[in-house]
C-alpha cells in the first residue's frame, strides 16, 4: 500500500469518525429535546392537576360549612318549645336526616356525590322552612336570623367555588386531551376530570328566605 492509499484510508477513517460523532451528537440532542418536552408537559399536567385538587378542597369546605349550618338550624328550631307533638316528631326526623346528609357531604369524592348529598340537605332545609313558617317568633329570634345570614353567605360561596373548580377542570382537560400532551397524560395516568353539571337556574345563587 503506497502513501497515497494510506492517506486516503486515514482521511476516510477520520471522516467516518466525524460522521459517527455527528450522528451521536444529533441523537443526544434529540433525546434531550424529547426529555425536556416530556418533563415540561408532565410538570404542566401536575400543575393543573394540583389546581383542580385545590379548587375541589375549597368546594368541599363550602359544602361542609353549609352541611354544618343546616343541622344547627334544625337544632335552633327544635329548641323552640311551643310545638305540637307531631311537629316535634317531624323536627326530630329532620335532625336525623340532616346528620346523615352531612356524613354524605363529608365523604363525597366527586361532584356527582357532592350534589346528591347536597340534594338530601336541600330536602331537609325545604321541610324545615315549612315548619318555621308557622312560628313567627322563631323566625324573628336573633340566633335564627344569624344562622340565616350565614347560610345565605355560604350559598354564595358555594356558587363561587363551584365556578372556580369548573374553570380548573376545563384547564386540566384541555391540557390532558390536546395532542401531543395527551400522550404524556395517558402514559402517566392523568385521566379526564368531571366538572359540576350546570342545572337549570344554576347561574343564580339559591335564595335562603325565612320570611
Q: Describe it for me?
A:
This protein has 211 residues and is an all-alpha fold. The longest helix has 76 residues, at 3-78. It has one domain (39-187): LemA-like domain (de novo design (two linked rop proteins)). It is 80% helix and 0% strand. The chain has helices at 3-78, 85-107, 111-132, 136-139, 142-177, 181-187. Mean pLDDT is 85; it is low at 200-211. The protein starts with a helix and ends in a 24-residue tail after the last helix.
Choose one word for the global shape: rod-shaped
Fraction of residues in β-strands: under 5%
Tell me the series of helices and strands, N- to C-terminal: HHHHHH
CATH topology description: de novo design (two linked rop proteins)
CATH class membership: Mainly Alpha
Coarse structural class? mainly alpha
- N- to C-terminal distance: 111 Å
Number of helices: 6
**What CATH architecture would you give?**
Up-down Bundle
Average pLDDT reading: 85
Biggest β-sheet: count, sense, barrel? none
Q: Radius of gyration, rounded?
A: 32 Å
State the low-pLDDT regions, or none.
Answer: 200-211
Which percent range fits the helix content?
Answer: over 70%
Care to count the β-strands? 0
Q: Tell me the CATH superfamily.
A: LemA-like domain
Number of structurally distinct domains: 1
Quick summary:
The chain is mainly α. It has helices spanning 3-78, 85-107, 111-132, 136-139, 142-177, 181-187.
Main attributes of the structure:
mainly alpha; rod-shaped; de novo design (two linked rop proteins); 211 residues; 6 helices; disordered C terminus
Amino acid at each position: 500500500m503506497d502513501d497515497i492509499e494510506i492517506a486516503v484510508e486515514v482521511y476516510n477513517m477520520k471522516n467516518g469518525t466525524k460522521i459517527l460523532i455527528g450522528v451521536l451528537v444529533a441523537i443526544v440532542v434529540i433525546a434531550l429535546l424529547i426529555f425536556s418536552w416530556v418533563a415540561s408537559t408532565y410538570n404542566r399536567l401536575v400543575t393543573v392537576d394540583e389546581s383542580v385538587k385545590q379548587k375541589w378542597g375549597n368546594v368541599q369546605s363550602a359544602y361542609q360549612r353549609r352541611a354544618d349550618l343546616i343541622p344547627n338550624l334544625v337544632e335552633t328550631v327544635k329548641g323552640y318549645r311551643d310545638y305540637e307533638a307531631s311537629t316535634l316528631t317531624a323536627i326530630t326526623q329532620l335532625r336525623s336526616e340532616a346528620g346523615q346528609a352531612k356524613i354524605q357531604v363529608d365523604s363525597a369524592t366527586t361532584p356527582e356525590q357532592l350534589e346528591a348529598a347536597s340534594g338530601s340537605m336541600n330536602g331537609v332545609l325545604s321541610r324545615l322552612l315549612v315548619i318555621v313558617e308557622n312560628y313567627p317568633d322563631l323566625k324573628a329570634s336573633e340566633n335564627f336570623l344569624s344562622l340565616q345570614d350565614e347560610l345565605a353567605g355560604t350559598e354564595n360561596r358555594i356558587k363561587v367555588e363551584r365556578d372556580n373548580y369548573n374553570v380548573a377542570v376545563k384547564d386540566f382537560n384541555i391540557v390532558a386531551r390536546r395532542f401531543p400532551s395527551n400522550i404524556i397524560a395517558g402514559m402517566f395516568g392523568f385521566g379526564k376530570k368531571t366538572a359540576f353539571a350546570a342545572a337549570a337556574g344554576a347561574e343564580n345563587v339559591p335564595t335562603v328566605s325565612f320570611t
